[in-house]
Each structure stands twice: as C-alpha cells, then as structure tokens.
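ok posting inputs for the magnesium ion job
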Amino acid sequence: MIIRYERNGKVKHGWMVEEDHKVRVIEGDIYKVQTAKPIMTGLELPLDEISLKAPCDPSKVVCIGLNYRDHAAEMGIELPKEPLMFLKPSTTVVGPGEPIVYPKLTENLHYEGELAIVIKKEAKRVKASEADHYILGFTCAIDVTARDLQMSDGQWTRAKGFDTFCPLGPAIAPKLDYANLRIVTRVNGEVRQDASTEQLIFTIPQLVEAVSAVMTLRPGDVILTGTPSGVGELKIGDEISVTIEGIGTLTTHVVGEE
Ligand code: MG
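and the output
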C-alpha cells in the first residue's frame, strides 16, 4: 500500500507492507507512471523512524453528500436524484494521528466515516466505464462536520471547511474490489457506523463520471463517497477511527482550539 511520509524534513512516498511494519522507499512521482516510472529503491525504513502524512496532497477534496439511503433517512432529507457535491478546501487535510481541532465557532461537531477515492491522472469528462483507469486507489477519510453551522448556513462551506476537517489515511490501497467493502467507524472503541459500500446510491465509477463532468480532477485529488448512517457527536478528548476492509484503520483524536 502507498503511504506518504516525512523523514529528515523531506516528504516522500513509500510502499508499506503491513506484516513487516517496514516502509520501502519510492523515488520519483507516483502519479507519472506512464512517463517516468517511480522506482522502488529497495531501501527499507522502520515505521518508527518516519512520520506518516496524509497519503496524498490534493488540490481539492470533492465530497458527495447523502450517498447512503440510511444516512439520508436519519438526516430526514430526500434522496438526491444526482450526486450532491460540495468541496472541502485542501487545508482541511491532515494525516493519521494529526488531531481534529474542535473550532470555537461550533457547538455540535460530527464525524462521518467515508471511503475516499484518490485520483491517479488528470480526469476531465471521464465516462463511468473508463473511471478505473483514473483511480490510483482508495483510502479512509473522516468528513468532519460542524452540524449546527451546516443547518444554519444553508450551504456547507463553513460547516465542512475548517482546518483539520479531513483526516485521510493511513495508506492508499491501489487495487480494491470496491463494490462491497465493510466500513466501520468507532468512537472511543465503540462501533458507531458499520456498513458496506454495497449500499452506495451512486457507485464509484458513477461518481468519477459525475464529478469530472463538472471540474477537472488532478493527480492526488480526492473524492469522498459519502457516509452511512450512525453519524454523531465528537467531544474534545475523543478518539475516532475508521476501518475499511482492504485498506486499514485511520485513527485520530479531537483537541480543543488554542
Ligand atoms: Mg460526508
């Protein structure tokens, strides 16, 4: 699985083999597989010598709202006829272990565990049938939401856009049978969301088609595919994790704003 890490002030990609807890160093640009192949250097680093970053550095994070029937029902909102899109700025992205900062402007912070698509190459008006060629892989995400601001503002820029509101990681799984993956969100070890991507209203290829019909997706851009039912509140001090079959577990915690 692909990770991004920092060591001695430099950020690089690596390949993590879960069983041996080591990272193999990759030199070169993992997004330029056609022109200049990234090189597996053979150099290995122990995980405790590196600091994991978010596995990609997106120019934008496109999110899909209400893409699971049961979540639309719990929000009391009608099912969308087309994918409902909104954006999170790139400044929302944090890596594994970097905390979610609870803003002073909200009194109702929610988690939404989600499967995230990472784009491999520039995608503009891509057909669903071609979508797989534009996907680098998949990672875990939390669409952190200030639910009170989402309801009061009428649109979602503030509610979804605070710094640290998009934890991503721990790794990108390049090959995944994404049609039926179990996704589980836990808060302080207690299961809060437990669903399958089988329940997605709009599928992964349909989402790539719908989003790339509007905006050009760049290498490393991310699409959050929506959250299942069971969303709920986060408090300062909570630990939250999202586990997706075939990817691993993204774990972070909530701290107060300084
Ligand atoms: Mg969401």
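notes: The chain has a mean pLDDT of 93. DSSP finds four helices and 20 strands in the chain.
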